[in-house]
Amino acid sequence: MSASIQTPSTSGTGSALGDALDLLNVLHEPTAVFNRINERPRVLIPWLVLGVFLIVLAILVQPYQSAAFEAFKATLTPEQVAKMGNRGAGGGAVGFVLYPVLVFIGVAAGAGLLWIGVSLTGTQARYKTLLSVLTYSCVTYVLFSIVAVLVLKVRGIQAITGFEDVRAPLGLDLLVPGAGLFAGTVLNGINLFSVWGVWLTGTGISTTHKTSRAASIAVAAAAFLIMLFIVSLPTLFAAMMIKQ
Q1: How crowded is the C-beta side of 194, counted as CA atoms within 13 Å?
Q2: Burial 19-51 (b: 16+ CB within 10 A, else e)
Q3: Cα torsion angle, 83, 58, 239, 66, sign
Q4: What is the pTM for the complete model shown?
Q5: Fewer CB atoms inside 10 A, N or C side of the chain?
Q6: pLDDT in tens, 12-53
């Protein structure tokens, strides 16, 4: 019998607390959480909690990104460096705040892909419910990011010689150490945590839309792979600049 954290169903502060605690409950009792989402989709409170974690993680990663950016500039010609001006790898406080916003835009787009996928199965898809399911499933991405930061801390900034070194090899890129920046980023995105997230999302779709578990996981996996390719595209452009 699982010991889930009690999630008050009353309105006000108790409801907000329950929405936040379900980010933990979804990891060990997903069906119960998704049943609650089916009754009342939640997005704002869980995303605010996730956003705080994302900002903290972005601050912790920023020194490593700066070191990678300096290494990247060293590969450019003086003319290219001059055109870049004083732009750095980070955007300061504004950049840290914008990071979870950009991630949420990606999540909203991912929910749109889920809506299309669920509709193709012949089921009436509900976008807000799918967005809530995906938001809660994103807790696995935060767990992945925490582990990645720990790996960077163990390595140290002195180990950063390029953007590839900021990417902790926790996915399929571990099996292909010679993969380029773009391919390595895509392979890195396929890891135990993302597989867990796809399974959670599929479970959420199956629970809230009464579709088969296999079809729901297939929809979640397809949406994940499409979004992974899209969010990895900037590294393809960066790799092209490095080769110039």
Answers
A1: 17
A2: bbbbbebbbebbebbbebbbeebbbebbbebbb
A3: positive
A4: 0.85
A5: N
A6: 444 889 999 999 999 999 999 999 999 999 999 999 999 999
